[in-house]
Amino acid sequence: MSKVTVQSPANIAFIKYWGVKENTQYIPYNDSISMTLSGCQSTTTILADKNIREDIIEIGQDGTYETLKKTTEKNKKAYQHIARIRAMAHVKDNVRIRTKNSFPSDAGIASSASGFSALTAALLLAYGLPHIVSDKSQLSRLVRLSGSGSAVRSIYGGFVEFLSGDENTSIAHQIADEKYWDLVDIIAIINTEKKTVSSTQGHSQAVTSPYFQTRLIELQPRLKETRLAIREKDFSKLGACIEADTISMHAIMMTSVPPIFYWDSGTIALIQEVIKWRKEGLEAYFSIDAGANVHIICEKKNTSLVETRLENIQLVQSTIYNEPCAGVHEVKEHLF
Ligand code: DP6
Fold first, then answer.
1. How far apart are CA 143 and CA 132, in angstroms?
2. Which of 53, 130, 141, 151 has the greatest count of CB atoms below 10 A from its CB?
3. Hey, how many other C-beta atoms are within 10 angstroms of the C-beta on 154?
4. Strand pairing report for 318-322 and 159-162
């Protein structure tokens, strides 16, 4: 059989999902909205062949590849996903998979959105199911079953919404494509340590926060406001939503049982910096996922101002520049 290679971006959620309703279908409690990230891409090559003795996934780092062992929940899910799609295709061939990220793997940036969306599309193509890749509703559902909800939003380019709902209706749709709005996300890397609590664990304990039901109510007007801000290209409106939602999600994390603290002192310092910049007239907004690193969202025209300021902050180890980009797609160049 021939090889296929797929590339897919990570994304930053403006309205975040935290909490899954149902553990086998991975349906989120709330709708989420995100932008794809050009600087954070996974590339995955798959060969399916009857002569391959067992499924193998190799992860690239600095030019060398290491076999992914089934040691963590996420790794097990990746191998289970291979079996799921193979069964759908009614074939028996095992796969050899190589995958690498465009961003440093030690940067403390979650790669599951780009990784699981690339893996799903590449498996479907390798197992002869290209019609599922073209049918975005079916592709959404399958990516969701991989266990990475954020990956569902990477199947489209640009600005994407992932709906809650049921096993059929919890899918992604595109709000606007990657050319629609010149926004930039500069990720300030301040902590490269692996997160101590996985998102999977966090999603399952979100409901234990006494404020969880309140979040589900108070984020509804914010979702509407975010859709409107994107439609009107109103950056100030969007920025206010982005920050409010980050604080709301982290409040749930910090008040769940047991509490989860992803922020460190550097995170707080950067939040305060961004607020100070705005008072000085530089419009930028912060967003933080399940980690300490800070995404700084600004209009493209302000990129160098933001980058220069970040260069002068000692705790920032490096930055990753991102624009909105295309979603998951096939590429010609293979990794092996
Ligand atoms: C905080 O289960 O999709 O990023 O990428 O492994 O963290 P990881 O996965 P996932 O949870 C994402 C949670 C979030 C918010 C969001 O992206 O909506």
1. 11
2. 151
3. 35
4. unpaired
Q: Specify the pairing of strand 94-101 against strand 56-61.
A: parallel
End-to-end CA distance of the chain: 14
Atom of ligand 1 nearest to the CA of 113: 5
Q: Which of 17, 34, 293 to mutate to test the pocket of ligand 1 (most atoms within 8 A of CB)?
A: 17
**Ligand 1 midpoint to CA 151 (Å):** 8
**pTM for this model (two decimals):** 0.97
Mutate to test the pocket of ligand 1, among 26, 36, 199, 246 (most ligand atoms within 8 A of CB): 199
For residue range 4-62, list pLDDT tens digits in order: 999 999 999 999 999 999 778 999 999 999 999 999 999 999 999 999 999 999 999 87
pLDDT digits (tens, 9 = 90+) for 221-247: 999 999 999 999 999 999 999 999 999
Q: Is residue 256 classed as helix, strand or coil in its secondary structure? A: coil
**Cα-to-centroid distance, 51 and ligand 1 (Å):** 36
